[in-house]
Specification:
The complex is a heterodimer. Chain A is an all-alpha fold. In chain A, 57% of the residues lie in helices and 0% in strands. The C terminus of chain A is likely disordered. Chain B is mostly helical.
Chain lengths: 88, 898
């Protein structure tokens, strides 16, 4: 499939938007890793306290929510943005 | 105390309030007001139907049993939401561009609009959702019973089953009223969505209120609450990794696949931009929903007596403390969770059932003709209403038969695992073009069977369907087929075990079969459309119109989407095509648009089938495939269209050039004619002038000379007259003004006359004739024909260069034409001149005999007037002319001896 090569340099705003869509893609991976992290705790010896994990989980949750909110603000659909191809 | 009565009253008031809200929202939407109905906040809140009564009550119970693990059922959806850029965005875009009505519709549409697949997904969805509806009914009933048990009098405790029945009936009525106002499932159910949004607020508020009460009312603030958690049986973080990860993944998958989630997330989606807000707002909502779950569980375990049902802590804690108001609020929260889930699930499932099961069956029963039979619109609406009632009833029956109890409580995750089986087909369909129908069917089938065998049936414990022996020793005594230790995977958590095997086998079979088998053209088309939805949000080319009857289509669509809408649609299409009236040409574009419109009402597969009945088969041409294959193909198509256009222009230009050339030639001919004629007139004029001047000016001419000169002048004027006569003759003939007077005569007589008139010397010029063949009667303008003969004979006399000239005249019959050949024995006419001899003023060689060169031109014109023709006959001994005459049979005299 031959795709027309886009311009090499993008307008600053478009560039920002694309990097933000990269961030939006990476966020769930980061989230999954963070939510999985407590599994590594207390592998040996003393079991971790539920309250500690609870604090961790909820803080992570809030941070992820805020990050998503910030990134989503940048991903506002521009009326004429040809970059909205889902690829890049 | 009248708590119970108050509860019933509040309950009714709340339901009435919801009715009013739904009614008001519907009205506002219909009047075009209420942009607030389309706000991203409403969209986000409507997603909260994920949080059902099972999560409202059950989360606390879950937490009381296994600590923080309950949070996984919220973490999965959270990851999906914050990863909206990957999946949800594409799902919503596909759903909107293809006018998808349900998850079954999406899968069926993606895999070549296969109704078989749609039916399969529908059945699976119904099987997976029915227990869940039963669960909601159970939660309402249980919470009611909790109140009743707390009643001091405790006398008029209502029957649990009857409560469930009334709730079920109420929900069915509500859903039918607001869920089937319009047929087009793509049109938003503003009333329902609004009611759900309100319920979302209510349940969050209720849970937060109970949480605040527990933390700051029962326990002495945050510090004390944490201490109580640390002191409770769930103090230690002892979560198994496989369950933690497995449940997160399972809930994420279910979040994408649950029919009710698909309904609010994709079908009811008003604007893709709403997803942006929901991507962070909904995780926030879920975070708040689960914030107080652990404290409530810990305090409940601490405060309430042993053996209290932890699933009802949210309700029993306020009741225990005598906070009836809070308890009622909590009850309403649980009630909201249950009702919103049932309503949306019923709408989603009824759309699937009526579009993919009832409508196709109905079409088949009525002879498969959408045109001839009755009102499809009413049938579809009725089907949907019946389906809603049927699904809610099925949920009630399930509840009734299973008798409630703990077996039902376990069904939540079992149900999740069931619908999660759609995931491979769904994701494969969105991201992998080679995914095909056979693969999807096989994968879904395998996943469903494994789920049924490993999770669903064992969830009831030993039963006649799945006896203890099979659980212990495997099917047919095969050890490796034990339902909870498939292929020897022992010691796993049963849920994780079943999810792992069903999902991985599902995926493996789906991918393998997709790779091995070959998709149909429609599947490939749809595949390209779905996977590359962002590149070309255009639509599937599929119909090749031309055969379709616009009127039939109009009749059919009127019955599905309603007469005014259908007429408006058709009229707009007609106007766009530049036609007046209601009937546009059934162009592929129009058919596609119509199909999409209809699929909003009856689903893609049915709409496709209905149109193909009228159009006569969905044919996908190679060009269509090319068109979506990739951009290159599109460019190629575009340039070929341009090429075609250029070709047409070239053709026109060529025609114009030819016409121009002809005009130029004519002009040249005219000039040549004028110069020729002035030359022809000038020659005799010159000699006439010269000799008349001699006669006038020269004195003493002899009488002999005088008479000689006068004779020359006379000869020249005769020649001039003849020339002018010829010209006049030709002009008359060419303009078609000649009047023919038809006579009947014999050919031999005519030839005699012509030979006599041409005045040739019989001694020096011999004419050979075929007397018997000349015995033919002719009915034509004999004088004109004689003129032709005379011309030909005198030409032969003039131009035949043989020392012993002979002209042979042979008439013969050919078909119904009489051919008369004049052949002399001279050298004939050179080939390069043969084409010119019939032109005006063409004379071959030097003019040894006088003549303007009009003779043969006149002959040609005469013959054309007589309906025959004259041509030069090459390849004879000398110059040869053939005169052809049409001959009607009755004029042909039978041969008579001369």
């Amino acid at each position: 499939m031959s795709r027309e090569p886009g311009p090499v340099f993008l307008e600053r705003r478009t560039y920002r938007r694309r990097r933000m869509s990269d961030a939006a893609r990476l966020l769930p991976i980061l989230g999954a890793a963070l939510f999985g992290l407590p599994l590594l705790w207390g592998m040996e010896g003393e079991a971790t306290a539920t309250t500690r994990v609870m604090f961790y989980i909820f803080s992570t949750w809030i941070v992820l929510t805020v990050l998503t909110a910030v990134i989503s603000r940048y991903l506002r659909q521009d009326k004429q943005d040809p970059s909205d191809t889902g690829e890049w | 105390m009248a708590t119970l009565n108050l509860l019933v009253l509040v309950c009714f008031l709340y339901v009435a309030f919801l009715f009013v809200i739904a009614f008001g929202a519907d009205r506002a939407a219909r009047r075009g007001r209420g942009t607030w109905l389309r706000s991203p906040v409403v969209y986000t809140l409507s997603l909260s139907i994920y949080c059902t009564a099972w999560t409202f009550y059950g989360a606390v119970g879950f937490a009381a049993r296994s600590g923080l693990e309950f949070v996984t059922i919220y973490l999965g959806p959270t990851l999906v939401m914050i990863g909206w850029w990957w999946t949800l965005r594409k799902m919503v875009r596909v759903g909107r561009s293809q006018r998808i009505t349900s998850v079954a519709d999406l899968i069926s549409s993606r895999y070549g609009k296969s109704n078989l697949l749609a039916v399969f997904v529908t059945v699976l969805a119904v099987v997976g959702t029915t227990p869940y509806i039963a669960l909601q009914l159970q939660s309402v009933t249980l919470s009611f019973a909790t109140f009743a048990a707390n009643e001091p009098s405790g006398t008029d405790l209502p029957n649990q089953q009857s409560i469930a029945l009334w709730v079920a009936i109420g929900l069915a009525v509500f859903t039918i009223l607001f869920g089937t106002r319009n047929l087009d499932a793509n049109e938003r159910h503003h009333g329902v969505v609004m009611a759900i949004a309100i319920e979302a607020v209510v349940k969050l508020f209720a849970l937060l209120a109970v949480g605040v009460f527990v933390v700051w009312g029962l326990a002495g603030g945050i510090g004390d609450t944490l201490a109580r958690i640390d002191a409770s049986p769930i103090a230690a973080w002892e979560v198994s990794g496989s369950r933690w990860i497995g449940l997160t993944m399972l809930s994420a998958a279910a979040f994408l696949c649950l029919p009710r989630m698909f309904q609010v997330m994709v079908v009811e989606n008003e604007d893709e931009g709403h997803l942006r807000t929901a991507s962070w707002a909904f995780p926030g909502y879920m975070m708040l929903m689960s914030l107080f779950v652990l404290p409530i569980a810990a305090v409940g375990l601490d405060v309430l007596p042993d053996g209290a049902n932890p699933d009802l802590f949210v309700l029993t804690l306020p009741l225990q403390e005598g906070r009836d108001g809070l308890a009622i609020l909590s009850f309403i929260g649980g009630f909201s969770s249950a009702t919103s889930m049932v309503i949306v699930a019923a709408i989603a499932l009824s759309t699937m059932v009526s579009n993919h099961v009832v409508m196709p069956v109905w079409l088949w029963i009525t002879g498969g003709s959408a045109v001839m039979s009755g009102d499809v619109r009413n049938v579809a609406l009725l089907a949907r209403r019946m389906s809603i009632a049927g699904i809610v009833l099925l949920g009630y029956l399930y509840f009734h038969v299973s008798g409630g109890g703990t077996a039902l409580a376990a069904i939540g995750l079992v149900s999740f695992a069931g619908v999660a089986q759609f995931l491979p087909a769904l994701m494969g369909g969105l991201y992998w073009r080679a995914a095909n129908r056979t693969g999807a069917l096989a994968g879904l089938g395998v996943g469903f069977v494994v789920w049924l065998y490993c999770l669903f049936l064992p969830s009831f414990g030993p039963s006649p369907v799945l006896p203890q022996a099979v659980l212990d020793h495997g099917l047919f005594g095969l050890h490796w087929l034990r339902p909870q230790a498939l292929f020897g995977a022992e010691g796993m958590d049963p849920l994780v075990h079943a999810v792992m095997w069903s999902m991985s086998l599902n995926t493996i079979v789906f991918v393998t079969v997709s790779i091995i088998s070959f998709p149909r053209p429609v599947e490939r088309l749809q595949g390209a459309q779905f996977v590359n939805v962002f590149e070309h949000s255009g639509n599937t080319p599929g119909w090749t119109g031309g055969l379709a009857q616009s009127e039939d289509l109009l009749i059919m669509s009127q019955r599905i989407i309603g007469a005014p809408q259908a007429q408006a649609l058709f009229a707009t299409a007609a106007t766009r095509q530049g036609l007046a009236g209601y009937l546009p040409e059934p162009s592929p574009d129009f058919l596609q648009e119509l199909e999409r419109e209809l699929s909003g009402s009856v689903g893609a597969a049915t709409a496709h089938a209905m149109i193909s009945q009228i159009v006569g088969g969905a044919t996908v041409s190679v060009e269509d495939l090319m068109a979506v294959a990739d951009e290159t193909a599109q460019i190629m198509e575009y340039s070929s269209r341009l090429e075609a256009k250029t070709e047409e222009q070239e053709r026109t230009a060529r025609q114009l050039r030819e016409a121009n050339q002809k005009l130029t030639q004519l002009s040249v001919q005219k000039d040549a004619f004028l110069s020729q004629i002035s030359h022809e007139l000038r020659t005799p004029m010159t000699s006439i002038r010269a000799f008349s001047e001699i006669l006038r000016d020269t004195q003493g001419l002899k009488a002999v000379e005088k008479s000689k000169y006068a004779a020359i002048i006379h000869d020249e004027t005769v020649r001039l007259t003849r020339l002018l006569d010829d010209l006049l003759d030709l002009s008359v003939l060419e303009n078609g003004q000649v009047v023919l007077n038809s006579q009947t005569g014999r050919l031999d007589a005519l030839l005699d006359r012509a030979i006599a008139a041409s005045g040739l010397d019989k001694q020096t010029f011999r004419i050979e004739r075929d007397r018997p063949a000349e015995d033919v009667m002719l009915t034509t303008d004999l004088d004109r024909l004689a003129q032709v003969f005379i011309n030909l004979i005198s030409n032969a006399r003039k131009y035949c260069d043989s020392t012993n000239p002979v002209l042979t005249i042979t008439p013969k019959r050919q078909n119904d034409r009489l051919l008369i050949d004049f052949i002399d024995n001279g050298t004939g006419i050179p080939t390069d001149h043969q084409s010119m001899i019939f032109e005006k003023f063409s004379r071959i060689g030097e003019t040894k005999a006088g003549g303007a060169g009009l003779g043969l031109a006149i002959c040609r014109e005469i013959m054309a007037r007589l309906g025959g023709d004259i041509s030069y006959l090459p390849g004879q001994s000398g110059a040869a002319f053939r005169v052809a005459l049409p001959q009607s049979p009755d004029t042909a005299a039978p041969t008579a001896p001369a």
